[in-house]
Write a sequence for this structure.
């Protein structure tokens, strides 16, 4: 779902440019702002529901807040989109995909806390 939102093809780059122009105009146009709000709310709800579903199956940590994670993921995708469209050579599709994978790998649980996971050497669950 998240990858489909990113400018990974020429078509998606064009769509993203239109989206950026739309955002520019929506800042001062209440009708456009309402459309953007509705669209963003629908996306947030879809991501939240997907994250909550993954949480129920143990793929996302129980302590995670699906609402906050959905908002954070939306913000991350928006940032990647802006950077990929405005500084394309720094963010080719392969890099954008890798960055999304890195983000999602942090969200999705790959081993139980304290399981001897090499990413959690002291077993504390805190990877900072």
């Amino acid at each position: 779902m998240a990858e489909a939102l990113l400018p990974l093809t020429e078509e998606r780059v064009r769509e993203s440019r239109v989206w950026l122009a739309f955002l520019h105009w929506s800042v001062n146009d209440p009708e456009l702002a309402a459309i953007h709000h509705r669209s963003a709310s629908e996306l947030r709800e879809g991501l939240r529901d997907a994250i909550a579903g993954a949480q129920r199956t143990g793929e996302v940590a129980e302590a995670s807040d699906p609402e906050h994670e959905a908002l954070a993921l939306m913000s991350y995708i928006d940032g990647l989109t802006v950077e990929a469209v405005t500084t394309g050579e720094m963010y080719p599709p392969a890099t954008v995909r890798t960055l999304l994978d890195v983000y999602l790998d942090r969200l999705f649980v790959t081993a139980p806390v304290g399981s001897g996971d090499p990413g959690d050497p002291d077993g504390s669950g805190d990877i900072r």
Remarks:
- Helices lie at 10-26, 30-56, 66-86, 93-107.
- The chain has a mean pLDDT of 88.
